[in-house]
Write a structure and sequence with these properties.
Tumour Suppressor Smad4, binds 1,4-dihydronicotinamide adenine dinucleotide, alpha+beta, Rossmann fold, homotetramer, 6-stranded antiparallel sheet, about 30% strand, 7 helices
Chain lengths: ~375, ~375, ~375, ~375
């Protein structure tokens, strides 16, 4: 767990690569990268040989195919040839144009956390053979995926982040300065953690008292995070293009605490009630941040700095054929949404009871 | 129940009263009425003497205070003095600038249904002493409420509607013409109704197959409707400013069919599977519309014609004092949201278990 | 739908075949058939050629292998050689020692309904290649299954039924006589059915007012029925050996109506509230029974006549091998429970999210 | 948190006061105390002056009214006159005939834990002015409540306990001896506690693998505990007379993990999967017991030693009048169940949405 002060040292990095907005549709605007990246940051899962080897392959490919592109890695040992170490403190001096992650969903959450107080560069995410919610590309397709990026064909899904500030009982901000809001992709969680007792948290929306929660804790989630912890607590599945914040209770001592979907423009305050017997541990995307005592609070709102995630394009993924076929039947064309595929294949959404054939059972 | 053809005769009425957009915030833009209304349509609950008497009072007050305003009533008997009958077919010849409803939530749903294929004039809704989700004003405050409107002080909450078209197996539209989409404030419901058997419905989002639902039915709801039938089926509570469509199953034969919050820009198709043993009755805001047979489908998307609902202003409602007080504590000012009050007082949202005092119990 | 009076004509049939109780454990007592059956009633799914052909095979096998056993069929056309027609009214004159069903879960519900007012003979259920919750035997194994019965090796699971009586506003029983309680295996359902309005039902437990339900309806279910309609409405999964009654609401207008598991000894009354705008359609195991008007009520309690279901024995089912293996690991022996297998394979209970391999996805 | 070894030192105390079984009904048998108590153990909430003063009053009353009865207190300071200190280790030498608790639900859980490995004497529980689920008597009524006990009029509700043993990877029992099962009234909880990662737990029923849970944890609860933590996690409400064990997941990473109601005769094993990244903290009735590492497991079954709770009698509680009235209406007599009253008044069970009168709102 981080100490309180250590949380607030970070200065926002700069992303030099502008994103071109292709349409004016408020949510779900289609965007592409305006120009090819000059610098790439690799972020990978630790202690995994398959991932380390894949990194070497990708780095070698970039060096050969796109000479002149600077390569960085946020770890500092076992660097592949031509890749230099990089840390959050290098953000201004060594701006990043593209992040490439190799690993699981957690690797992308970690990449986002490297840019937790400012703009995030576009993220290209490779899975290592297993699907994930935030993982559009299979590692086998990396040459094509890179080609699309360098030729300006990639589309971007901006995944909302939420920005969180921590406050003392007197309202003053922990960490001192106003521009240190910590941003997360999935959620901020307040949890009783090691306390045997429930905690009491008051939730306010735009300054108005919403409710007093007596529970194991509360989750304030982005639409992206709706398929993470919030889902386990009974929350709905929210499409990443719906500009909103999701409030879901964790094991509330109440029969009537339903999930709330609040406007993306809301400012939400979660305050440990002074009568709470337990404090609340704060987790940011699953990473412990600090412990709030009674009277202390956090304030959360949509961040101005979403994560620009590069979307899978149709050609790179076989099962899109079927989607195409379906669309034709319904008399529609184009588009398609990885999200629909993912909630079905990853979450086994609405797996209807089937009177399966005994044959299957016997296999 | 309406026959199929009778549904599609309606021609959209015209609202002559423009609404001024006060800000550019995509959701929850603050709007006001640009000029005082020249014509008012009364919509009231039927067969209720208290409501009938209130209508007479309001009509008399308008005639005296705002002479020259034309008054209409969508019923044709027992009209108060100076009030003329009006029906949907009069919409073009006798445009309406303001609707005043007297009754419950159902009365507003009915007012919306009078303008189900086009623009709806702003709606001022009076409750008859009981609160309701769509009922900001208590009838006792009607002189002030009218004054605010005629002096241009009222603010408007645009409540999203969804537009629905009905299709035959070959895709052709029932009712014939493309501009007859039926619009609803709460939801479109497909339900097995009188059939003892479950039905099977395929749901598509933007032409992509989302899921096959084996259930009592499906609800496609607006945020406004999230506190109506969808809530009873386990759906989340969605703030009316979140531009989205909510898909909630009714008693699905599945352990894993969670509610989905889809982008407001989605186009959703619900098609009775050809293998479905039961047809599906379609209800629009609780009103039966038609029965879909296997192979037939509906298509739903956000309507371009929301319902402009006149919001309660702070001065007219006592309990706002408390909200004011809370905001001051949290160091915020202004605004306030009836929605927060309503989910607490009307839905008993998150009524925490209390070890109540025996004293209370004994009363 | 049945008329009210037609419901109550039935006279209870007699089962001549005593069941031997092997242990005194109140729930889950192990029982076997005391002597070989002298008469068998076939109940099969209608309009299905595969089922009709299977029936001919089974009937021929019984005639050859167990000569002297009387064979009946509750349908009266297309009877296989040596099989006579039988109807509920023959129950006294032509007692049944064993029921054999061929079809799905619905076929067993139908078999139970043939004996809806009295004792049910033991039931041997064959599935036609698809699994079902109430279907232990695959049709391919019928010679062995019959052999086990005639040699007294079969074990019996007594599935609780609930007995229901229908009452007028003045409390008098519809149908006239006290011994006409209608018994069901799954559940009694009260539903608004064709009414657009919610109904209001008062629930009483042992004469004490429990709650007033404003909803689409209520389900009063046996543990067997807990995996049927009640599950779709959010109810828990109750093991068939737990002597209890399950009350689950259907789409209640309440955030706080959780399922209740009541003692099997309870007497439950469901009464349409006099203020209810809608009546309630009563379904018994999915079969429409009657419509209750405001003031009318039903009374439900555990039936003294459960359904003796013949259990699958270990030798007849391959996948039991795995179960055996697991038990060995946990240091236990014997027994095993089809129920555990069924909730996993049929309901996909707790299908944990898996980051599936792309390989699988690609197939 | 207790160390592992300290858990297993306890030797079961003896209760000298036999309970007479009044009926043979398997669940909900009515029982009474056979003879007046010779010794009473007081258990009270700590650090509460009101409770301390009430204890002095009750102790004085018993000394005067029932001279010769030995009085004990499980705390050893501030003992009222005539009350001696007592601890679990005195259980054999100084047997207890009656426990009197003064405090909340937690005080009864604590009283049960004093007798966690053997028979528990009957418990008479006084609330200090607030209701509780396990608290039938208001402190104001203590003279009558005691009179009923000494004159043999009290009825007893036997609340099931579950007995739990802790096992190492090799199956050997922690603490060494087979008869040290720890018994709880509410539940055994396995929780990830301070770990940021989910744990993986395999659940077995009677040696058969039931499911692999990837979650924050699992709850194995008695019917009594169904209104405690399990309820917060979405579990059903189970009447205390239903002989069963309730398995409820805590925030499972699954859309399809519904609560299971298992037979009271089941033997359930919960084993930390060897692949689990996190261990599991075990809580017994909210009290931390130990931490299980991957491969370690607990085994749970119904305890032979339930908690005999003395029930509120009709005369002592005013609101019973209403219950009486209702019963008369339904044409039934007698009985009545505090449980029905409690789920309504304490849990606000099925608080139907009411369009409340503005008048109320204004108060
Ligand atoms: N009971 C639960 O469900 C809990 C869930 N979490 C979630 O874990 C996240 C942290 O993830 P890791 O660092 O990978 O921890 P982890 O290694 O413990 O894995 C958590 C799981 O969540 C998945 N996941 C992460 N983000 C997701 C998303 N947006 N949609 C769908 N699945 C997603 C991951 O693929 C992984 O399977 C937290 O942000 C929180 O949402 C954390 C604690 C408890
Ligand atoms: N099981 C259920 O919960 C069912 C609910 N309904 C709902 O009833 C609506 C029709 O309403 P009425 O014509 O008044 O029928 P109704 O007179 O049967 O009343 C339905 C109830 O819903 C309330 N309601 C309506 N719209 C609401 C909203 N947006 N938020 C919160 N509460 C709301 C009304 O105040 C009333 O209490 C439908 O649009 C549907 O949403 C319809 C059938 C079943
Ligand atoms: N929304 C829902 O889930 C609804 C469920 N039902 C259920 O259908 C039952 C009648 O069944 P059928 O005549 O076959 O009608 P059906 O042909 O409409 O099938 C209902 C489905 O329920 C399954 N089923 C039946 N009893 C079951 C049990 N005890 N456990 C698990 N699955 C079970 C059947 O295999 C079938 O897949 C009713 O007793 C009721 O429980 C009835 C209406 C709606
Ligand atoms: N998120 C949650 O709901 C959590 C609940 N708990 C529960 O707290 C219990 C321990 O209770 P305390 O020592 O008093 O801790 P506590 O002082 O933290 O209180 C827990 C609350 O649960 C209530 N309670 C206890 N047993 C109950 C029952 N059988 N039915 C209904 N309400 C009940 C108590 O009155 C109190 O309001 C545990 O056995 C566990 O069931 C423990 C942790 C989290």
């Amino acid at each position: 767990m981080l100490g309180r002060t250590s949380l607030f040292k970070y200065r926002p990095p700069v992303c030099s690569l502008p994103i071109r907005r292709l349409s004016n549709h408020p949510s779900g605007a289609v965007k592409t990268l305006k120009k090819p990246p000059n610098s790439i940051l690799f972020v990978k899962k630790r202690n995994d040989d398959v991932v380390a080897s894949a990194l070497r392959d990708v780095a070698a490919h970039v060096r050969e195919t796109y000479p002149g592109v600077q390569l960085f890695h946020e770890q500092d040992s076992n660097l592949p040839i031509g890749v230099e170490p990089w840390s959050s403190s290098d953000a201004r001096s060594r701006p990043i144009d593209l992040i490439i992650t190799l690993g699981g969903d957690g690797t992308i959450l970690h990449a986002s956390s490297l840019f937790k107080t400012g703009v995030v560069p576009p993220v290209l995410s490779f899975s290592m053979g297993t699907l994930g919610f935030l993982l559009p590309f299979n590692i086998d397709t990396f040459p094509q995926a890179l080609d699309e990026i360098f030729t300006g064909k990639s589309e971007i899904l901006e995944r909302m982040r939420i920005a969180c500030t921590f406050h003392r009982q007197d309202g003053s901000e922990m960490g001192g300065s106003a521009n240190t809001a910590w941003q997360v992709m999935n959620e901020v969680t307040l949890h009783r953690g090691r306390s045997p007792h429930l905690n009491i948290i008051d939730a306010y929306v735009d300054g108005q008292h919403l409710t007093e929660a007596v529970s194991d804790g509360l989750i304030l989630s982005t639409p992206t995070g709706s398929t993470a912890y919030s889902l386990s607590c009974g929350g709905p599945i929210v499409h990443p293009s719906v500009h909103s914040l999701l409030l879901t209770p964790i094991c509330p001592r109440s029969l009537s605490f339903r999930s709330l979907v609040l406007p993306g423009s809301s400012r939400i305050t979660l305050k440990i009630n002074r009568g709470s017997r337990a404090p609340a541990e704060v987790s940011m995307d699953g990473q412990e941040a600090c412990i709030l005592q009674p009277g202390e609070f956090i304030t959360v709102e949509a961040s101005p700095h979403p994560v620009p995630c590069i979307k899978r394009s149709a050609d790179l993924f076989t099962s899109r054929r079927d989607a195409e076929k379906e669309r034709t039947i319904m008399g529609e064309k184009g588009g398609g949404d990885d999200w629909v595929r993912d909630i079905n294949s990853l979450l086994q959404f609405n797996a209807t009871f089937k009177n399966k054939h005994l044959a299957t059972e016997r296999l």
